[in-house]
């Protein structure tokens, strides 16, 4: 669905293997003892492994020739930008991507081990899927034939069949049914899904939403003058020709198909207009749907999509997020020739399958990707296949990662940081001057019951529960496409069978995809999550001073806590329901403060491409970034008081501990982008670029300005500052 119920820290695509809990605790105590021993006096250097590695990375990334008060990001990351080489198969390189590569490499080592009789059975199925993905010889022998068979089942592809295609056999509704049955994306004209009721998050509703045309949606709005749209057309033509279409016919008919998509973008409400969730809450019975949109047999349509294990009747209430879109798409489908509809629906299906076919079928996509991102090299096959496994077996991969690579003592250590950051958020809430007493009480109550999920749920270590989740999954050796479709169909089936089940907001399945370098705020659950994958260096290590951990993982924790009260999170109450718990005047003052953030970030321009940041769509992330840094800095000061010592990193002795906090924060954001990829990345991401995620919050911080003695009016200490929390 378009509508996010989860806010992520960012896109970033462990310790030694420990086999029992007791050795982990002994190791942690030993590390802590060595840390205290090696950092016992203010005038000696911290020589722990964590300190030495952090010092090495910070020095390598830093550009001392840049004045911190001019551009702190380039001061902390300038040398990284100068010396880092973006891998030929990537659009960027960053601290995050390096950790992701390490995690991916760890998973790969296990997937390439022989199948085992011990452990969950799903681990062997993952290895079977990985081997099938790696078997390029078989893929090349099969060519595009597996997809040709499916095209015939779908009634043929007009651009390929020409005059042989029979329009009388085509119905977009029946094609939607067939796509659902086969395991393909069936949400090509109307987006159907199941999710929490916005105003009663203990139950699920069917959701009917506008389609998602990302990542090309904004480019399609510009029409044929946009080079990416022309490249998209070329991509489609090359693919159709591969399946047997004449070039001239493919050129002509697929232009009509893209024109159809361009028309759809006129009805699709852009992201910046989707932030008021109350406007999206439109409950209708199936009977009412028939009245408003009569060309669709809604009871049959919805039951065919969600079935066969579950069904609804005409009194079922569904949530229609965009009634105007529904009216527009219904009219558009009625006046559009069947040939154009069929080409659109089947070509989207063909394009989605190309990654699971032969090299020649994948080539047109790589040509298209080069125009979009400047990436002119395909990923190493093993990396691609590990990514496929991680995406499609996320719970099982989380279980594998925790068992083999995660230092389980990190859970309790990270929990201490989370509790400290929560105290600082509560302090900020208690002391804001612009909130009326009742709204402040509501905010504090919401903060008090905020649930925390750290590391991994214990169920990931239960073989039976993991296997039960994947029960009856069929992986077909030598048939990658069928295996992928089986996985997708099983996932969608499971989601729909849960429609009438009460929501368990603490279910391990909701928080089990832990082999990821990210963090989340689940706003409909009033919960924050810090998966195992992010609880590692450079974000966190037990043998490092406070300023390193609070500058890195602390700001991540603060970011997620603050999402609870960003422009979208503030629309949810403590139970995770969309409800107005604000006094009118307090809400007006909040909006004024948020408007300051919007205006500030709307004035940022990505210099390399002249792209202006959208301050509206990024406001939630920007509010979270600003609040997260503030909370973490306050928590760091408390930690420093308790330690009662100043620790220095080798080669960085000239910086105070407070300055090192800010350097640690900036250091984890060091990122180098391909110029060609930047517009695509930031038109489709509600996070601003790394430089702005550093300089934006710090330019609003009086603490930063004081610690680096930036004079008032300097670039990093402007006289006018913005603050929500």
TrEMBL record:
GO CC terms: plasma membrane
Its gene name is: LOC103513758
Superkingdom, taxonomy of origin: Eukaryota
Annotated Peptidase M13 C-terminal domain ranges read 518-724
The Peptidase M13 N-terminal domain extends over 68-457
The entry's family comment says: Belongs to the peptidase M13 family.
Subcellular location per UniProt equals:
Cell membrane
Q: Which CDD domains match?
A: M13
- The name on file for this protein is Neprilysin-2-like
Keyword Metal-binding among record annotations: yes
Q: Name one GO biological process term.
A: protein processing
Q: Which organism is it from?
A: Diaphorina citri
Entry membrane topology: Single-pass type II membrane protein
Key words, A-Z: Hydrolase, Metal-binding, Metalloprotease, Protease, Zinc
One Pfam family from the UniProt entry?
A: Peptidase_M13_N
Q: Identify which cofactors the protein needs according to its UniProt entry.
A: Zn(2+)
Q: Which GO terms describe its molecular function?
A: metal ion binding; metalloendopeptidase activity
């Amino acid at each position: 669905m378009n509508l996010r119920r989860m806010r992520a820290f960012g896109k970033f695509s462990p310790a030694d293997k420990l086999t029992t809990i007791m050795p982990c605790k002994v190791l942690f105590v030993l590390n802590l003892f060595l840390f205290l021993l090696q950092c016992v006096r203010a005038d000696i250097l911290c020589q722990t492994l964590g300190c030495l590695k952090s010092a090495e990375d910070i020095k390598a990334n830093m550009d001392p020739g840049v004045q911190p008060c001019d551009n702190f990001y380039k001061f902390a990351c300038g040398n990284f930008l100068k010396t880092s080489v973006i891998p030929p198969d990537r659009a960027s390189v960053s601290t995050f991507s390096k950790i992701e590569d390490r995690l991916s490499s760890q998973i790969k080592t296990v997937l390439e081990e022989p199948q085992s009789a011990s452990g969950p059975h799903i681990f062997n199925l993952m290895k079977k899927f990985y081997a099938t993905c790696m078997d390029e010889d078989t893929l090349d022998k099969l060519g595009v034939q597996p997809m040709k068979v499916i095209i015939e089942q779908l009634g043929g592809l007009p651009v390929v069949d020409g005059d042989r295609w029979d329009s009388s056999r085509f119905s977009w509704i029946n094609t939607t049914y067939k796509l659902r049955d086969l395991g393909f994306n069936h949400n090509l004209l109307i987006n159907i899904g199941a999710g929490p009721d916005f105003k009663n998050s203990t139950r699920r509703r069917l959701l009917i939403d506008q389609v998602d045309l990302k990542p090309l949606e904004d480019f399609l709005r510009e029409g044929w003058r946009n080079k990416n749209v022309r490249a998209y057309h070329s991509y489609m033509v090359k693919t159709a020709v591969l399946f047997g279409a004449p070039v001239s016919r493919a050129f002509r008919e697929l232009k009509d198909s893209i024109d159809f998509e361009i028309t759809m973008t006129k009805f699709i409400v852009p992201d910046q207009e989707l932030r008021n969730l109350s406007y999206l809450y439109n409950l209708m019975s199936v009977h009412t749907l028939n009245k408003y949109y009569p060309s669709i047999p809604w009871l049959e349509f919805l039951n065919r999509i969600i079935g066969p294990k579950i069904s609804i009747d005409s009194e079922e209430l569904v949530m229609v997020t965009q009634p105007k879109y529904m009216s527009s798409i219904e009219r558009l489908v009625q006046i559009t020739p069947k040939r154009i509809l069929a080409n659109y629906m089947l070509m989207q299906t063909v394009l989605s399958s190309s990654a699971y076919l032969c090299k020649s079928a994948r080539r047109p996509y790589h040509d298209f990707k080069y125009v979009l991102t400047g990436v002119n090299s395909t990923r190493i096959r093993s990396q691609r296949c590990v990514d496929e496994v991680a995406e499609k077996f996320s719970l099982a991969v989380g279980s594998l990662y925790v068992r083999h690579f995660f230092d389980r003592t990190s859970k309790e250590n990270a929990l201490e940081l989370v509790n400290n950051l929560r105290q600082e958020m509560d302090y900020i809430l208690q002391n804001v001057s612009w909130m009326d007493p009742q709204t402040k009480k509501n905010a504090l109550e919401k903060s008090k019951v905020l649930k925390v999920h750290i590391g991994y749920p214990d169920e990931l270590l239960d073989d039976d529960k993991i296997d039960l989740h994947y029960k009856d999954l069929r992986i077909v050796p030598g048939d990658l496409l069928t295996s992928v479709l089986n996985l997708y169909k099983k996932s969608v089936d499971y989601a729909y069978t849960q429609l009438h089940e009460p929501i368990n907001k603490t279910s391990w399945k909701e928080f089990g995809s832990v082999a990821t370098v990210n963090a989340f705020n689940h706003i409909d659950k009033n919960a924050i999550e810090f998966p195992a994958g992010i609880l590692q260096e450079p974000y966190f290590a037990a043998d490092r001073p406070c300023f390193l951990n609070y500058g890195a993982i602390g700001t991540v924790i603060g970011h997620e806590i603050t999402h609870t009260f960003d422009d979208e999170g503030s629309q949810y109450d403590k139970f995770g329901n969309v409800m107005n718990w604000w006094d009118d005047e307090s809400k007006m003052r909040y909006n004024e403060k948020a408007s300051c953030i919007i205006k500030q970030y709307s004035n940022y321009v990505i210099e390399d491409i002249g792209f202006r940041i959208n301050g509206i769509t990024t406001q939630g992330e920007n509010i979270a970034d600003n609040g997260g840094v503030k909370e973490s800095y306050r928590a760091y000061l408390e930690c420093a008081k308790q330690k009662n010592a100043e620790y220095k990193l080798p080669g960085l002795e000239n910086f105070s501990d407070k300055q090192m906090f800010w350097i640690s924060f900036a250091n984890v954001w060091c990122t180098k982008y391909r110029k060609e990829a930047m517009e695509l990345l930031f038109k489709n991401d509600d996070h601003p670029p790394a430089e702005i995620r550093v300089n934006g919050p710090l330019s609003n911080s009086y603490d930063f300005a004081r610690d680096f003695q930036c004079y008032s009016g300097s670039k990093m200490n402007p006289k006018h500052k913005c603050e929500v929390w």
